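Archive entry: two folds, one per protein. Generate the first.
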Amino acid sequence: MGGEQVIKNADRPINKVDFDHLMEFYSEDATLVVKPVTVAKGKEEIRRAFIAIAEYFNHSLIVNQEKMAIIETGDTALDVAQAKLSANKKDDSEFSMERTATYVFKKDSTGTWRCIIDNSYGAEIIKN
């Protein structure tokens, strides 16, 4: 699938605060885990969530995937990644975090891989 490159290509518009371009990586009915008990469904909600996240971090959030493992079957792929997040312009504290993220991709009718589930919290979602 070239999943590692797909994820890295998706990180660029997050880091550049270019959410119009970022939406090209998601399916129309995708789900984003905003935080362990909150999800955004569909491109419009996901776009609004990323805008709110960027504003929370004063537009300084940087996302980088350190390591990845991809399991693919047919038109579906699971990507488990060690994601590093940092934000150097957060006023109340410096923010840096590593997460083991999980992403699910599905190949659409044009043969393009689209993210259908974006869970940067990984297994942390079951702790609450």
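Generate the second and append.
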Amino acid sequence: MNLFFVRHGKAKGNEAKDPLTEEGIQQAKQLASFLNTKIVAQEIQLITSPFCRAFQTAEEIGRTLNLDIKKEVLLVERNLGDTSDLSDEERLRKIKEQFEHPEMSFPGGESNLDVTLRVKKFLDQPYLNNGSVKIIVSHRLTLSLLLQEFGHKSAYETFLTMTNPDVYYIKTMPDGSIQIEHIWGVQT
């Protein structure tokens, strides 16, 4: 298994329809060039969240690597729900609490447990087991929980340190163990 988990470039907001900023578009182009130098494979699948910012990032990758794009609704960002009455500091404190108690959620939103179940369903998709390299473009909370499924450090710690964009490489070793490498910040 060779997976590249990619967080999208900087976006104008966090709603499904929010596009990349101009800086985010440039980041997506840099990301595409970076992946083009890192991936040497005959068969590559590009799978993305259908949210605009992730899809735009995938489009740049697809253009550069000459790949078709598969949209996957299971990769959308966690629906936080109603946080309008909270300051940024209060929201972040509550999000930390929700990582400690994954069944908790904001009113009208998903819990981390909901997202974890969703990403487990994604990982069970038959097309993920065809031997090709996968580039998976998604969002900060979703990717943090997805990485945790492979035994990566605390999902909350990943959530706090993940950048726009970001790339993690997951590889199954010959002995069956999983190797996770944070490769974006190392080279850029």
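Annotation attached to the second fold: The first helix runs from residue 22 to 38. The beta strands are 2-7, 44-48, 69-71, 133-138, 166-172, 178-182.
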